[in-house]
Amino acid sequence: MNKITIGVIGAGRIGKLHTGNIVKHLPQFYIKTIADPQIDEAWATSKGIPNITRDVNAIFQDEQIQAVVICSPSPQHAPQIIEAARAGKHIFCEKPISTDIDLIKTALQEVKKTGVKLQIGFNRRFDPNFAKIKTMLQENNIGTPHLLRITSRDPKIPPTEFLKTSGGMFIDMTIHDFDMARFLMNSEIDEIYASANVLINPVFQECDDIDTAVINLKFANGTLGVIDNSRQAVYGYDQRVEVFGSHGAVHADNNKPTNTTLSTNDGIISEKPLYYFLERYEESFVAELAAFYHCMANNTEPAVTGEDGLRSVIVSMAAEQSRRENRPVKIDYEKWSN
């Protein structure tokens, strides 16, 4: 196995997660440098990272670094994709690429021009449960899909400071569900109708955001879909998917610490879902980086492309337009992209 030398940009929660997974589970990568303006040097040293810097340019300028893992705040994603591409480095980037469509297009054009790989961090595609649903749909186990239902509810609301810069629930949270919908149905979302409200905490209203939503989808292939979102499920991280089709249905339930169920005269008790995304999607975070290595090592198309990242942002923006105008919105991807 040929090791690929990488640099990690951003050492917040997701940057620390990816770094820890690489060190522990992915020996095919060698992390030479990690960069963050507010780097926790003690943490980085504990992971055995030889070069710790506050200047991201140290990564772009290092000819030994072949690829970057971008985990910085969202507004920095597209500019850093552009810089990495110009430096000839392959790129794994967390979502979203940007909330500016023109900037996304510029970044994707730079990637295409330089010929580097770009994979976007929609990790849920790599979850074993959802991947199994995808396989069953490809094998026609339930016939023609008619209905898709995705439930995605966070266990607690994000910090206020985060909400002020998140871009809103659709671009921050639901974007994962939009990508999952496109992935499972193998069809573009043609029309969207988002109904949303502030039902949990007035801080969302103060941030011009929402905390609860039901989103109806129409796909180009005729399938219908429903996504329901909440920023606060008091019982844990609620992540479920069901596809109903002409020959049956397939359903993925929540992951729990164990599948143990206690049945007594008083009732039936089972465990709550795993608490949050770090626990629920642990396997998928490792698998998506393994896929990133595979596409570089074998010169294949990334599993989640920049175009996938662009289209999920477009759907998120259409959802925001729909909820503000209280009407269904037809999604013309070419119009949004021009």
Report how far apart the termini are: 42 Å
Q: How many separate domains?
A: 2
CATH architecture of the largest domain: 2-Layer Sandwich
Low-confidence stretches: none
CATH superfamily of the largest domain: Dihydrodipicolinate Reductase, domain 2
Largest sheet: 7 strands, mixed
**CATH C-level label of the largest domain:** Alpha Beta
Description:
- The chain has 13 helices and 15 strands.
- With 338 residues, it is of the alpha/beta class.
- A seven-stranded mixed β-sheet has the order 12-11-7-10-9-8-15.
- It folds into two domains: 4-116, NAD(P)-binding Rossmann-like Domain (Rossmann fold); 125-280 and 312-337, Dihydrodipicolinate Reductase, domain 2 (2-Layer Sandwich).
- The model has no long low-confidence stretch (mean pLDDT 94).
- The chain has helices spanning 13-25, 41-46, 57-60, 77-86, 101-114, 128-138, 160-165, 169-185, 203-206, 277-280, 282-297, 306-325, 333-337, and strands at residues 4-9, 29-35, 51-53, 67-70, 90-93, 118-120, 145-153, 189-197, 212-219, 224-230, 238-245, 248-252, 261-264, 267-270, 329-330.
